[in-house]
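LOG
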Amino acid sequence: MKRLFITLGLVFTLVSSASSQEIYYEIRRSAQENVDNPATNALVKQFSLFKLEALNYMVIKMKEEMPDSTADFLDRQALALNTFLTSYTASLMESKDDPAAHQVKVIKAYMDASYSNPLFNDPDKEMVLAYYRNGKCLTRFSLDTDWRRALLAARELIKVIK
């Protein structure tokens, strides 16, 4: 009986670990497909390219700064990144009929949430703020972002400006 519980515990651990790892890889795979597909809408391609850049940055920095971190941590960050971008898109769509000044407040709320919640405190501001400083880009966010905290911060900021 004891072996059964230990075996079941190991199976659940492996299954949750595998499904957890699938989150990061699925988000990355989907973004890569969108970037590679010539028929993909330009806006979707832009968001997908940012996702890829952010995920690649996160993996590299985690290996450098947090070598003992788990795949689960990466998966939670990847999921939060995906949710952050989905929330951002939804907020933009909800404000499409609002005055331009309100739309700018929505964009700045997400930008501020990203910038104000660094994950690694990377001193290479030129690289981590490349998207943030690009006025032609819709994904004006810092690559060095704790996406879980940024998502919560963005939601709070949106509540305030509504």
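LOG (cont.) second protein
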Amino acid sequence: MAQQRYQVGVCDWMVLKRQKLGEFELARQLGCDGIEMDMGPLGQREAFDNKMRNEADATLFKHTADSLGIEIGAVAMSGFYAQDLTKRDNYMALVNDCFDTMEKMGGARVAFLPLGGCGNDWATNKQKRAEVVRRLHDIGEAACARGVRVGIDTPLDAKGNLRLLKEIKSSGIGIFYKWQTIVENGWDICQDMQRLGAKNICAIHASNTDAVWLRNDKAIPLPAIRQTLDKMGWSGWLFVERSRDTTMVKNVKMNYGSNVRALKETFNAYPTPEVALDSAGRDADYVRNIIGRAEKATNELSITWTPSGENVRNIVANRYFKLNDIYAERDSIKKTNKELATALCDSRLYRSHFDFDADLSRYLKPHEVEKVKDVMTFNVVKVTYDAYCDMIPRLTNEEKQQILLWLKEGRELAIDAESSNKKHETFNKYKGRINNYLSRHGYDIQKEREQWEERVKARGGKL
């Protein structure tokens, strides 16, 4: 399959998966084409803490990436965000370690080298600048010899970067373009990229500082940027580094799922969900309402903006549609034959109930399927179970297991109930069964509840 003109990935160190095997599965879940793999921490070490020097690790990582269809689009030396390139006498050894890793990881063509550790004045301090330029020339020539390119991250605009590249005098050095830098300096991204030119941009860190998602960031005009890059004839990797929503900054899947999707929708066709939404012929407002209800489940799993999340959302929404159709048919038949209506309704509910579990299991693990069911039933299982355990602290493990078993049995029926009231009625029947069970085991439920209310009130709460 021909390589797509624009490819979208994430920085593994930013999604908390720096050189962790799970980065490839996470990238797949997020809908990425690939990842930007970091070389590992540097700090005061002599060398990067790089697992890929171990042949067995490198082979396993490459095999896992290939099996999941995830490319290593670039390899990053993010340690130089904090470490000064001009004070590392072994800088060529560090760079060659990066080149070796690129080769082991399938021949990534671009390395990322930030210059942040060189200080705030390296671009204006003549002596410091000269040393930066000299070392970058050496690095660039080494990159040419290895058939790769090093993209540097600078605080400069297009004019400043063009001047710097001219001083470096090596085609092995380009600019790893960063939208965040442009926005923070008040420059125009589209104009600046055009001035810099396509041949000088190795790859792009396609994000802003943490504040809001890309789709909500007015400083990042994605359609205009796409139009500009098309006009320039540029192609390559766009990696999400930041642009996390600060209200949920630690939620990796929601933040990066949203940003990857925004880029894919703009630059690179977002995959059509495997599960179609059964919305044809239904009222638009009703469909929006049902989608909103279904997304409560995917939000709980933090997968709303991912390809699997879209499939799960459609499965849940389709279940709501199916239930609506079943009960609408029952009500229609009930006008002429009440017994037949009830029998047909029960039959259709039973036949379709297990399909729902099977459909969810294609995209979710068992504990995630449980979460979906809990969201659809207002989390009554957990709330009720916790309440019983708090009300009667001396419950045995066997009694706790029986309570949980019945609540989950009730949940299976409540999922198919036609309204929230009917769902709660279902659970109330099971609560009655549980109370009878506990009474047979010697508990005075009324007395236990009264004492529980007093304890809750004493700690400042209420039932």
